[in-house]
Amino acid sequence: MVSTVIPVHPFDLVIFGATGDLSHRKILPSLYRRMLVGQMPAGSRLIGAARSKMTRAEFRKTVREALGEFVEAKHQKPEAIEEFLNAIDYVAIDATGDAGWGALAKKLDEKPDNIRAFYLSVAPALFAPIAARLAQTGIATPESRIVVEKPLGHDLASAKTLNAELRKHFHESQIYRIDHYLGKETVQNLMAIRFANALFEPLWNSHYVEQVQITVAESIGVAGRGAYYDKSGAMRDMVQNHMMQLLCLTAMEPPSKFDPDAVRDEKLKVIRALDPLKVSDTVRGQYRAGGGDGSYLDHVGNPASRTESFVGLRVHIANWRWSGTPFYLRTGKKLTARVSEICVVFKHPPHTIFPQVDTLRGNALIIRLQPNEGITLRVAIKDPGPGGMRLVEVPLDMTFAGTLGPDGDLPEAYERLIMDVIRGNQTLFMRGDEVEAAWEWADPILTAWEESGSRPMPYDPGSAGPIDVYKLTGSDGHLWREIAA
């Protein structure tokens, strides 16, 4: 299978925070890979913008080192790297002062016909000041795009404030709130599976779906980012944004067309249909010390912390399609394995002619985001051989590694999303009202946890989380899927 490369117009991408980890680890390597496949046209430029005083040559040296560390060895092509570095420029800039803005404007004016995009890979506190400066200096044109990373607020009030600040200077159609989960091939294939085939959509409702499980598990702890994490926790860091988007794409109605606002309208309807969370439908946890490593409390340096490193939820969607079908969500640190997946479990046949069917788990569609992106469908078949009708469960495997072959490459999420910014396609980006609706749903339970004064339940590293998480599914007669890579 050969992927199609869709050309884009020459562009200038200004990366604020270009000397930071996200730029070196994800943004610049992703753009390099796009250049390798011919999707970075001649005349395009990547302009780093940061506080550090350095020359263009010095910045290019850091980019070369980043490519050496974060690009696969088979793509380390000296001529291509030189070509990429020739498209790199740099401006030392003060995000909240006057220094550097004139120099940036001068560079951009050299190519007035290039698309202008501004990637804010900086602390959220700098989003509004940079947006204001871009507008006030005339650097941002009516056709420019601005990209902002999470966290998009800490609660509903701060999210509204941030959206208002951005909209003072940019139209909603220019604002790209990036969520890298939406750039994953498997997530996009979830929409293709549902809306490009007649097979699943008639069954995609509470009449045929028994339960849905969404798991985002990490095997590592929060050491190294404890100060940030202790102010957010699993609910703010994962559920309110990444997992909410996965829930929306799984549960939404078919949009009238594959259009940015049509898709995002349907996602918004899902969020607004969510029943309010009850404390009894939630489980919070903190990992203990183990395996020679410290506990969550050790890693954040706060022995009194009540911030959760694990959260499990039972969620219900109050609409005709999903009434009565529970959605189980769980995410956490220091769990058994690193796994992100959506599992749609279908009900058993209404009448069985095979007694053994009752011992089988039933049909399930498993959408695996990481590792080993792909989709499998669990079905029951006859066990080959004589001796009666013995049934076994087997997966119909749609993993992309098998489809693409051993040398096939799946594009990184950031590759797809950055190119969508250049194209002006907002389908895979969050709209402001989506962000606010998600916070409106999450805020009450966050407040209830805080007011309860209770501490998260401890759990062992390498486990599936606190023992009480099994009650969320068990009370409905269901079982969590095993967390396995």
TrEMBL record:
<dbReference type="Pfam" id="PF02781">
    <property type="entry name" value="G6PD_C"/>
</dbReference>
<comment type="similarity">
    <text>Belongs to the glucose-6-phosphate dehydrogenase family.</text>
</comment>
<protein>
    <recommendedName>
        <fullName>Glucose-6-phosphate 1-dehydrogenase</fullName>
        <ecNumber>1.1.1.49</ecNumber>
    </recommendedName>
</protein>
<keyword id="KW-0521">NADP</keyword>
<dbReference type="InterPro" id="IPR001282">
    <property type="entry name" value="G6P_DH"/>
</dbReference>
<feature type="binding site">
    <location>
        <position position="180"/>
    </location>
    <ligand>
        <name>substrate</name>
    </ligand>
</feature>
<keyword id="KW-0313">Glucose metabolism</keyword>
<feature type="binding site">
    <location>
        <position position="333"/>
    </location>
    <ligand>
        <name>substrate</name>
    </ligand>
</feature>
<dbReference type="GO" id="GO:0005829">
    <property type="term" value="C:cytosol"/>
</dbReference>
<dbReference type="GO" id="GO:0009051">
    <property type="term" value="P:pentose-phosphate shunt, oxidative branch"/>
</dbReference>
<feature type="binding site">
    <location>
        <position position="150"/>
    </location>
    <ligand>
        <name>NADP(+)</name>
    </ligand>
</feature>
<keyword id="KW-0119">Carbohydrate metabolism</keyword>
<comment type="function">
    <text>Catalyzes the oxidation of glucose 6-phosphate to 6-phosphogluconolactone.</text>
</comment>
<dbReference type="GO" id="GO:0004345">
    <property type="term" value="F:glucose-6-phosphate dehydrogenase activity"/>
</dbReference>
<dbReference type="GO" id="GO:0006006">
    <property type="term" value="P:glucose metabolic process"/>
</dbReference>
<feature type="domain" description="Glucose-6-phosphate dehydrogenase NAD-binding">
    <location>
        <begin position="14"/>
        <end position="189"/>
    </location>
</feature>
<feature type="binding site">
    <location>
        <position position="237"/>
    </location>
    <ligand>
        <name>substrate</name>
    </ligand>
</feature>
<feature type="binding site">
    <location>
        <position position="51"/>
    </location>
    <ligand>
        <name>NADP(+)</name>
    </ligand>
</feature>
<dbReference type="InterPro" id="IPR019796">
    <property type="entry name" value="G6P_DH_AS"/>
</dbReference>
<feature type="active site" description="Proton acceptor">
    <location>
        <position position="242"/>
    </location>
</feature>
<dbReference type="Pfam" id="PF00479">
    <property type="entry name" value="G6PD_N"/>
</dbReference>
<feature type="binding site">
    <location>
        <position position="218"/>
    </location>
    <ligand>
        <name>substrate</name>
    </ligand>
</feature>
<feature type="domain" description="Glucose-6-phosphate dehydrogenase C-terminal">
    <location>
        <begin position="191"/>
        <end position="481"/>
    </location>
</feature>
<keyword id="KW-0560">Oxidoreductase</keyword>
<dbReference type="InterPro" id="IPR022674">
    <property type="entry name" value="G6P_DH_NAD-bd"/>
</dbReference>
<comment type="pathway">
    <text>Carbohydrate degradation; pentose phosphate pathway; D-ribulose 5-phosphate from D-glucose 6-phosphate (oxidative stage): step 1/3.</text>
</comment>
<dbReference type="InterPro" id="IPR036291">
    <property type="entry name" value="NAD(P)-bd_dom_sf"/>
</dbReference>
<dbReference type="InterPro" id="IPR022675">
    <property type="entry name" value="G6P_DH_C"/>
</dbReference>
<feature type="binding site">
    <location>
        <position position="184"/>
    </location>
    <ligand>
        <name>substrate</name>
    </ligand>
</feature>
<dbReference type="GO" id="GO:0050661">
    <property type="term" value="F:NADP binding"/>
</dbReference>
